[in-house]
Design goal:
2 helices; mainly alpha
Length: 45
């Protein structure tokens, strides 16, 4: 959620298109998945 929440204020306050909000949200979900995957992969057992 932390990756995606910053784009909501950009769309409402800076009048960016809502389509860019959707694309940034998808991008942030992918980025969060990769970051979480690497974190889980490198976590010491």
């Amino acid at each position: 959620m932390a990756y995606a929440m910053g784009t909501i204020s950009e769309s409402s306050w800076f009048a960016k298109p809502w389509k860019s909000l959707a694309l940034n949200t998808v991008d942030s979900l992918l980025y969060a998945g990769v970051a979480g995957g690497v974190f889980g992969w490198l976590w010491p057992v």
